[in-house]
Amino acid sequence: MPKMKTKKSAAKRYSFTGNGKVKYKKQNLRHILTKKSTKRKRSLRHAGILSPDNIPTIRKKLLPYG
User: Fold this and answer.
1) How open is the CA angle 51-47-12, to the nearest 5 degrees?
2) Angstrom distance (rounded) from CA 19 to CA 23
3) pLDDT digits (tens, 9 = 90+) for 19-54
4) CB 65 within 8 A of CB 11
């Protein structure tokens, strides 16, 4: 059976932590920053953790060797 291909778009967006959680960069921090509060921009800098419901989909279909 041939190797499964990694979805490269998913590989650029998601990464796995040591405990198997899925980490991603939060959106809405590229432009139109003047109307966003400092607190909101500060919280958007930190990585987000994907909900446990979506982890099997990412692991099986998009990043099989992640």
Assistant:
1) 85
2) 11
3) 999 999 999 999 999 999 999 999 999 999 999 999
4) no
